[in-house]
Amino acid sequence: MACPPQLFYNTPRSDPLGQSLDFFVHVTEPIKDTLNAAWCTGSGYVCRRTALDDIGGIPVGGVAEDVATSNLFIGRGWITAYVHEPLQFGTVPEDFSSHLKQRTRWAIGTVENAVNVNFYLFGDKIKHMTALARISSFLIGILSFYPILFIISLFSIPVLLILGRPLVVFTSDNQFRWLLRTAFATVISRRILEFFLYIPAGYHTGQRFARYQIWMAPYLAVCLIRAFVLPKWLGGSSTAFKPTGSLGSALNERDADSRKGTLRRLFAILIQCQAIFHLLFVYFTITGAIIVTYKCFIIERGTYKILQCLITHAWWPPVTWIFLANSMWAPVAYAINPPAVPDREELLNRDPMTNIAHPRDVAKKIAFGAQAFLFEFEYTMTTIYTALCFAATFFFF
Q1: What is the C-alpha to C-alpha distance for residues 375 and 389, in angstroms, rounded to an integer?
Q2: Could you count the other beta carbons within 10 Å of the beta carbon of residue 381?
Q3: Helix (H, G, I), strand (E, B), or coil: what is residue 90?
Q4: What phi-psi label fits residue 86: left (phi over 0), alpha (psi between -120 and 50 degrees) or beta?
């Protein structure tokens, strides 16, 4: 089997919802291909008929039959190849609800496929799969549960801020200094790692993917718990995300001329699509940071003690709560100011003789917008702040 990447030509400017798959197709999938674990991830694949007959045909009953098919190919000893060429372009979902349904369906399908083959550890279905291919697929399957653990840890940020608890614990000023230096080393090494890791897909694509993982985590966690943990009588369901109530007519949020009003969009995304959780997280996080900052100025005396209180209770570098709140704000920002995307025909070059259309070159790329600039400004400022805290350990703290 051979499969090219699934690319898109209608991705909005700055890709506020992280709909592009560029990180997966330019980083993850090439790595899997080197391990002979390439997946079938789109409609443009080709495979041998004899191989398809060998696995009993395309498996049915799951929500990710394409990936399941490639897993069975690999398990039977067939070679799957990833064709790293821009050969096919499709369209991303054009509304928030459809995006949630797509991504939660993918998450459920990934875990479902892993469960069906014992998480790629043993079984007749994968007896010819190599050790490296098993490890690769096992990691992807098991890491699909990461959003559940992430959401549990996410609650600790607003709770600690509101309660005024320190973000770090130390017993002496010397420990405090070395904790700051360690934080600086961690941040800088992470920035360098991110830069090199994101090069194949593009630096801003990688940063969007990181933010997407944060704001999408609540939806993925709920769907995975309902699909694989809760019994049906407690709300268990194997279906993807479904908005509460009826969305009625389409919001047309990406059509500048026919989109619904701001209040209608806010109701649909915050209430029906349950992004109210994201709004509350941002509210309590920022409120907690403001309260604990105020307390440091009121309770402590002296510049040294005030700054130490501020750093340890709210502003510990690289001020992670700012990045988390900014990422969790994505659905709310999308509801307030959704991107405008041109009509589909404006993104295509159509041959007048054959009427065959191909995406325009400019439509194949994600345009750089103000949102991407603001995110990078935040990242740069928190990095500079971390460096200043590091420098202060040598002459002030």
Answers
A1: 21
A2: 13
A3: strand
A4: beta
In 199-319, where does DSSP find H-type helix?
203-228, 262-266, 276-299, 303-313
Kindly state the tokens that stand for 157: 């940020």
Residue 332 to residues 150, 269, 271, 346, 375, Cα–Cα distance (Å): 20, 8, 11, 28, 16
Contact 328, 278 (CB under 8 A): yes
Q: In this structure, is the dihedral angle defined by the CA atoms of residues 82, 88, 93 and 98, taken in order, positive or negative?
A: negative
Torsion of CA 99, 105, 110, 111, to 10 degrees: 130
Q: Answer yes or no: pTM beyond 0.70.
A: yes
* Contact predicate 212/329, CB 8 Å: no
- Structural domains in the chain, sorted by start: 2-144 (3.90.550.10), 148-392 (no CATH)
The helix-helix angle for 96-116 and 203-228 (nearest 10°) equals 70
Strands of the chain (E only): list them.
Answer: 2-3, 7-8, 81-82, 89-90, 348-350, 357-359
For 232, which DSSP code?
G
Distance of CA 186 to the CA centre of its chain: 22
Per-residue pLDDT of the chain (397 residues; tens, 9 = 90+): 999 999 999 999 999 999 999 999 999 999 999 998 999 887 889 999 999 999 999 988 778 889 999 999 999 999 999 999 999 999 999 999 999 999 999 999 999 999 999 999 999 999 999 999 999 999 999 999 999 999 999 989 999 999 999 999 999 999 999 999 999 999 999 999 999 999 999 898 999 999 999 999 999 999 999 988 888 777 777 665 555 444 444 788 999 888 999 999 999 999 999 999 999 999 999 999 999 999 999 998 899 999 999 999 999 999 999 999 999 999 999 999 999 999 999 999 999 899 999 999 999 999 888 888 889 999 999 999 999 999 999 988 8
Distance between CA 288 and CA 294 in Å, rounded?
10
Pairing of strands 89-90, 7-8: parallel
DSSP output for 152-188: HHHTHHHHHHHHT--SS--SSHHHHHHHHHHHHHHHH
| C-alpha to C-alpha distances, 86 to 4, 11, 122, 369, 396, nearest whole angstrom | 7, 15, 35, 24, 54
CA distances from 2 to 70, 80, 105, 302 (A): 10, 6, 23, 67
* 40: its two tokens: 């079938």
